[in-house]
Automatic annotation (TrEMBL):
CDD domains: D-HYD. Pfam families: Amidohydro_1. The lineage of its organism: Bacteria, Pseudomonadati, Pseudomonadota, Alphaproteobacteria, Rhodospirillales. InterPro entries: Amidohydro-rel, Hydantoinase/dihydroPyrase, Metal-dep_hydrolase_composite, Metal_Hydrolase, Metallo-dep_Hydrolases_sf. Its EC number is 3.5.2.2. It comes from Skermanella cutis. Keywords: Hydrolase, Metal-binding. Residues 50-442 form the Amidohydrolase-related domain. This is Dihydropyrimidinase. The keyword Zinc does not apply. Belongs to the metallo-dependent hydrolases superfamily. Hydantoinase/dihydropyrimidinase family. GO terms for molecular function: dihydropyrimidinase activity.
Length: 476
């Protein structure tokens, strides 16, 4: 039979190999990979370009309201439009449980936000902020069974943080259900204490956001999370790792045979604390947690990507408008850094930054690029087989790259809802030009042509990486 679409003459790259071949697509799936396939109903000439599995961004925040008056800059339409333009075909945002809200209600709420709006496929991680009996005993097990097979816990933030006992309880449920836990590792009390001291000394500018949560704050929490994971015998993913100290903790745990995984993000590779120094509130554009640090930390994160300490590289896209009272630039009494919403946009620039700074500059190879941006996300979060690779039978989720296209990152060219990019002016070599989701063309020669509602919800399998080792310190 013939193909709906043939991608012809490109260089197909997967996490394990690079080869010249045509890609034949039928009914949304990859149907054939071979030289000189017969003509398809539609053809794309990929000569001189790379044909990669579409990016999977397993750490994004979309349309996620926080407790205060801040408003996230992306809903599921603009968020997935921006993701697609950046070469992504799947995102896994969060369904956040507010304290007092049932986890079920949170999940329904996010489905309503996403329904009919997404240009690319999506799943949901859960954020567990209220680990009561209902949550731990009923909702969490049932939701894992329904395909929400990962959840995030926070060791800091007023509205989200769990105490040590709660962490252990949630880890225990994850072990029993086979779910993967993502951990935001920073010490809450240390940050509070540092913040209050800084404020008393009059240091309230955005720059001091970084000073309030230095590397030891991250290192201690990372170590504590690892300790709890060992006690309970549950694999965990330490997300948005920013410092050499935290990388060292993860490597130490891995060398002891513990199943501790790590993720880092573009901001920790190319930004530093110096970016937080701007006139007036400009530094707020770079406020995220953990904060960008120094060149040594950048090197440590690059090394962690190159040597396999990190399994995934995500954006932690968490967009706020700068020039808005509901965003970064606070007014009146709340201009101190502690009131600046944490998070920066990055879903559209994640892949180009790693390609340009990593592949083009020789820090990682093409196989690592594909693994870190796509394949490992699918494997880690229960989408293997369907997503994250180019093989017969997998979903036809593809990003065609022009590896030589050189242009700077400019806010005016991005598709997110934020009014700035922290990477303004950065020179990039290598951009995605055409993006295909389940055989449907979503981005064509750089223009977003996809339709809202083309993206579908993904029930995810249990992660094979979440299997306990079988060595617990838990009594009973
Ligand atoms: O500053 C950040 N990272 N905001 C997003 C929320 C989170 O902690 O991932
Ligand atoms: Zn976090
Ligand atoms: Zn995040
Ligand atoms: Zn469609």
């Amino acid at each position: 039979d013939s193909f709906d679409l043939v991608i012809r003459g490109g260089t197909v790259v997967t996490a394990s190999e690079t080869s010249r071949c045509d890609v034949g697509i039928r009914d949304g799936r990859i149907a054939a990979l071979a030289d000189r396939l017969p003509t398809g109903s539609r053809e794309i000439d990929a000569g001189g370009r790379l044909v990669l599995p579409g990016g999977i961004d397993s750490h994004v925040h979309i349309d996620q309201p926080s407790g205060d008056e801040t408003v996230m800059a992306d809903d599921f339409l603009s968020g997935t439009r921006s993701a697609a333009a950046g070469g992504n075909t799947t995102v896994i945002p969060f369904a956040l449980q507010h304290k007092g809200q049932s986890l079920r209600a949170a999940v329904s709420d996010y489905h309503a936000r996403a329904e009919g709006k997404c240009l690319i496929d999506y799943g949901f991680h859960l954020i567990v902020s209220d680990p009561n009996e209902q949550t731990l005993g009923q909702d969490l097990p049932a939701l894992v069974n329904d395909g929400y097979t990962s959840f995030k816990v926070f060791m800091t933030y007023d509205d989200l943080k769990l105490n040590d006992r709660e962490m252990l309880e949630v880890f225990d449920v994850a072990r029993r259900e086979g779910a993967l836990v993502m951990v935001h590792a920073e010490n809450y009390d240390a940050i509070r204490y540092m913040t209050e001291r800084l404020e008393r000394a009059g240091h309230t500018e955005p720059y001091f956001h970084g000073t309030s949560r230095p590397a030891p704050v991250e290192r201690e929490a990372t170590h504590r999370a690892i300790t709890f994971a060992e006690l309970v015998d549950v694999p965990i993913m330490i997300v948005h790792v920013s410092s050499g100290d935290a990388v060292e903790q993860i490597r130490w745990a891995q060398s002891r045979g513990l199943k501790i995984y790590g993720e880092t993000c573009p901001q920790y590779l190319v930004l530093t604390a110096e970016d937080l120094r701007g006139l007036n509130m400009e530094g707020a554009k770079y406020v995220c947690s953990p904060p960008p640090r120094d060149p040594e930390s950048q090197d440590a994160c690059w090394q962690g990507l190159a040597n396999g300490t990190f399994t995934t590289y995500s954006s932690d896209h968490c967009p706020f408008r700068y020039d808005s009272p509901a965003g970064k630039k606070r007014k009146g009494e709340r201009t101190a850094f502690r009131w600046v919403p944490n998070g920066i946009p990055g879903v559209e620039t994640r892949l180009p930054i790693l390609f340009s700074e990593g592949v083009v500059k020789g820090k990682i190879d093409l196989q690592q690029f594909v693994a870190l941006t796509s394949t490992n996300h699918a494997r880690m979060y229960g989408l293997a087989g369907r997503k994250g690779t180019i093989s017969v039978g997998a979903d036809a989720d593809i990003a065609i790259w022009d590896p030589e296209l050189r242009r700077p990152i400019r806010q005016e060219n991005l598709h997110h809802g934020a009014d700035y990019t922290p990477y303004e002016g950065m020179e990039i070599t290598g951009w995605p030009t055409t993006v295909i989701v389940r055989g449907g063309i979503v981005v064509e020669d750089g223009a977003v042509v996809g339709q809202p509602g083309h993206g579908t919800f993904l029930k995810r399998d249990l992660s094979p990486f979440a299997k306990p080792r079988g060595k617990t310190w838990l009594p009973g």
